[in-house]
């Protein structure tokens, strides 16, 4: 058991979860080795079905691993479930829907469930409601709150007992862009100002890019990349797109660009795409070189890599397109394959 406060707050070894679906094994998470340090803000990024929620549900004790181990806040997720639950907050997908209870009462009840006396529970509720800009909505039934307000209430409820670690499963899915940004700001504040370690899942590239210290890209149950967004993108270089009025010029430019160290060059008719590190700096000298040999560049654009480019490079698929093509069938199947473990999940981790 890791009781060292400066050690990782999450440590897994070959963490694995297999489900059985239509009589066949589904390897949702395959041998995850993970370390998260105290105070990090980590995003699991991946398409639907990648294994993000399953990972979170194992780390929050909601479902048991098939094999492998995980320690959260120094406690084993199988043998010391109660201790893990005391140390963490968890906001699952779609909590708080449709309650007739008032928002404030909901927070107070949770605080009471964590053993606080009434006065302390009231004070904690007011503090959290203010922190999440919910004070003026606190006396409305939860069912009348907007999607963004409900999500913020979910996070506030998850924080009632001042957990060291907060797990958020797709916190901004379904929110409009403004509410999404608002929630992201609250999550960053929680991390920066209170020092709470945050582990969230998302399939929004921009979200992972904008707020996470570290992005763990997961696909088919495997971690395929784990680094800061900046380093992941820098590894791919910039995309320099060149346009020519003449196909011979484009051919000559492609040959010249191919001599740049580490460059990948693709030509399509009169267009040339060059993927190269420090493309922004190299573009000007490339244009000058070409001009010196009589080749005029008609159009040039330089774009930094996005996390979608990273995902495409790693998997051959666009994550943005995977999100758009997520089939109704998959969601439908999952809804009908409820396991015993998920029933436990419904009973709630924070109660
Ligand atoms: N209870 C279950 N029974 C059977 N299969 C399951 C169950 N839960 C998850 N799976 C399968 O495990 C795989 C990983 O699912 P998981 O929900 O962890 O993915 P995810 O990355 O969180 O995706 P999403 O964004 O859709 O939540 C998928 O193939 C999914 O269908």
From TrEMBL:
Residues 322-351 are annotated as: Disordered. It is a peripheral membrane protein. This is ATP-binding cassette domain-containing protein. Keywords: Antibiotic resistance, ATP-binding, Nucleotide-binding, Transport. It is found in: Cell membrane. Residues 10-245 form the ABC transporter domain. It comes from Nocardioides marinquilinus. One of its GO terms (molecular function) is ATP binding. The keyword Zinc does not apply. The keyword Ligase does not apply. It comes from the Bacteria.
């Amino acid at each position: 058991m890791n009781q060292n406060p400066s050690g990782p707050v999450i440590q897994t070894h070959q963490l694995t979860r297999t489900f059985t679906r239509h009589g066949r094994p589904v390897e949702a998470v395959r041998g995850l080795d993970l370390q998260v340090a105290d105070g990090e803000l980590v995003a699991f990024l991946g398409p639907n079905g990648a294994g993000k929620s399953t990972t979170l549900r194992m780390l929050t004790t909601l479902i048991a691993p098939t094999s492998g181990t995980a320690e959260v806040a120094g406690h084993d997720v199988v043998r010391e479930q109660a201790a893990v639950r005391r140390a963490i907050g968890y906001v699952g997908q779609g909590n708080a829907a449709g309650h007739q209870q008032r928002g404030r009462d909901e927070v107070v009840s949770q605080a009471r469930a964590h053993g606080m006396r009434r006065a302390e529970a009231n004070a904690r509720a007011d503090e959290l409601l203010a922190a999440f800009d919910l004070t003026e909505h606190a006396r409305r039934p939860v069912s009348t709150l907007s999607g963004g307000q409900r999500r913020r209430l979910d996070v506030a409820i998850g924080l009632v007992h001042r957990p060291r670690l907060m797990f958020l499963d797709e916190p901004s899915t379904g929110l409009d862009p403004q509410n999404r940004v608002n929630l992201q700001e609250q999550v960053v504040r929680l991390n920066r100002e209170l020092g709470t370690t945050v582990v969230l899942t998302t399939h929004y590239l921009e979200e992972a890019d904008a707020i996470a210290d570290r992005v763990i890209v997961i696909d088919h149950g495997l971690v395929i990349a784990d680094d800061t967004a900046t380093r992941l993108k820098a590894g791919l270089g910039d995309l320099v797109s060149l346009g020519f009025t003449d196909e011979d010029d484009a051919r000559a430019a492609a040959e010249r660009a191919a001599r740049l160290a580490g460059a990948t060059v693709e030509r399509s008719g009169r267009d040339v795409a060059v993927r190269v590190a420090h493309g922004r700096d190299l573009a000007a000298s490339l244009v000058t070189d070409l001009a010196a040999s009589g080749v005029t560049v008609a159009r040039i654009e330089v774009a930094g890599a996005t996390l979608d480019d990273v995902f495409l490079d790693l998997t051959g698929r666009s994550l943005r397109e995977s999100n758009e093509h997520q089939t109704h069938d998959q969601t439908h199947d999952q809804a009908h394959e409820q396991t015993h473990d998920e029933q436990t999940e419904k009973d709630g981790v924070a109660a």
